[in-house]
Design brief:
Helices cover about 40% and strands about 20% of the residues. The chain is an alpha/beta fold.
């Protein structure tokens, strides 16, 4: 489809894509595990066989991105090489090794009137994925959606359009050759925002949208979508240093949570310290985080004067860099209240040797993942044992936290009777 289509042509083509995706989803819903695994295996082999085609497309994207002045970090996310393509194809092979999440019996109920009710996992249907920068998402997201029996409509960033189109074409053709329904994998070829806006109105065909990218992208999708959206706007993750904690271990955990990969959503952004721990712990953690720019309250700065004064905005901020907000609290209750007010519902942790404090924190902090004595960096599908993830949700319906294959399914009730009527 040519790039310079009219708005009307784009709308018509998107409706066609939605219609055939819906048709494909009904066939995918009854596909066996063996069929889905055969498609995924063929896709992985096709990626390996057409590595040079993918690299040629990626070179075009890289040249355009460099000419546009994209940052080194963005260029690195965009860049493909032979190893990265092997990793992508190996990722598909890993997905085919995971248990099929479809068709699981979730509950069985026998009613006094003889009705037999079974709750069974089923695919969601058609899932749209909107993402930025990383071409690997084209394949990773598709593999997970297909394994869970869903059709997928992909819309990547303009900077990766040639790479994404090549990847989507290769895996779609490989799957169809092995009997996968036409329309199970589709890539939107237009880079303008109008195509996304039109797609987000196709709730008669698309059952769920998952945006993967920055807060600005996610908010734009939420504002326009007429179908459910799985999202997390940002990861303002907290660690609370209780007065009873092991200070040495606390420093190790905090350094890992902040410094191992500061640019990810499960990295530490705000450190809360109990006032009784502050005199000893403040100098310790400041020394350990010597390469981190600290934005702190007056009590902390009295002990660590090189720290910058924190503002009210710092408590809400997702830095995604080697910066950290630090606040002193008078109690566990105050720490929990701070997290529930300023946090994003992502991942929060207490460092403590008091089991009662640990249980209160676990029960009262309203976040997708709540930790005791461990780094927030573990909020990840692989680390949670899901095998793979399509993203992290801070919603409460229907998925929360790392989303693996199970979260790409819904359920229905199968009710078996023998002539019962309701009186």
């Amino acid at each position: 489809m040519k790039q310079n289509c009219s708005i009307e042509e784009i709308g018509q083509e998107l409706e066609r894509m939605g219609r055939i995706a819906k048709e494909a989803s009904r066939k995918l819903a009854t596909a066996s595990s063996e069929q889905k695994n055969r498609w995924l295996s063929a896709m992985a082999d096709a990626l390996d066989a057409q590595t040079e085609t993918i690299l040629n497309a990626n070179r075009t994207d890289m040249e355009n991105a460099e000419a546009a002045g994209l940052s080194s970090a963005m260029l690195d996310r965009l860049r493909l090489n032979e190893k990265r393509i092997r990793d992508i194809s190996d990722g598909l092979r890993h997905v085919l090794s995971l248990p099929d999440p479809v068709g699981r019996s979730l509950a069985q109920i026998s009613r006094p009137n003889g009705l037999e009710i079974e709750k069974v996992s089923v695919p969601i249907g058609v899932i749209a994925i909107i993402y930025e920068s990383r071409p690997n998402v084209t394949v990773d997201a598709t593999g997970l959606c297909l394994k869970a029996g869903n059709a997928v409509i992909l819309r990547g960033g303009s900077e990766a359009i040639h790479s994404n189109l090549a990847l989507a074409r290769i895996i779609a053709e490989a799957g169809v050759r092995e009997g996968m329904p036409e329309g199970a994998i589709q890539m939107i070829p237009w880079t303008g925002h109008e195509a996304v806006s039109r797609m987000l109105k196709l709730n008669q065909f698309i059952d769920l949208v998952i945006p993967r990218g920055g807060e600005r992208l996610i908010r734009a999708v939420v504002e326009q979508a007429t179908m459910p959206v799985i999202k997390h706007y940002k990861g303002v993750c907290h660690i609370f240093v209780d007065e009873t904690c092991d200070f040495s271990r606390a420093c190790d955990i905090i350094e890992n949570a902040k410094c191992q990969r500061p640019g990810v959503c499960n990295a530490l952004e705000t450190l809360l310290i109990h006032k009784n721990a502050l005199p000893v712990f403040a100098p310790m953690i400041a020394k350990r985080l010597a390469n981190v720019e600290l934005h702190a309250d007056d009590a902390f700065r009295a002990l660590v004067p090189e720290a910058l004064p924190a503002t009210e905005e710092d408590w809400f901020r997702e830095y995604l860099s080697l910066k950290l907000a630090v606040r002193t609290v008078n109690s566990l209750d105050e720490a929990i209240a701070h997290i529930n007010h300023y946090g994003s519902g992502h991942s929060d942790c207490i460092l403590t040797e008091d089991q009662t404090h640990a249980e209160q924190f676990l029960n009262e902090v309203d976040s997708a993942a709540v930790y005791v004595n461990a780094s927030t960096r573990f909020t990840d599908g692989g680390e949670f044992g899901f095998g793979a993830e399509i993203g992290i949700s801070t919603d409460k319906l229907h998925a929360r936290g790392p989303m693996g294959l199970v979260e790409l399914t819904s359920y229905k009730y199968k009710v078996r009777g023998s002539g019962q009527i309701r009186s």
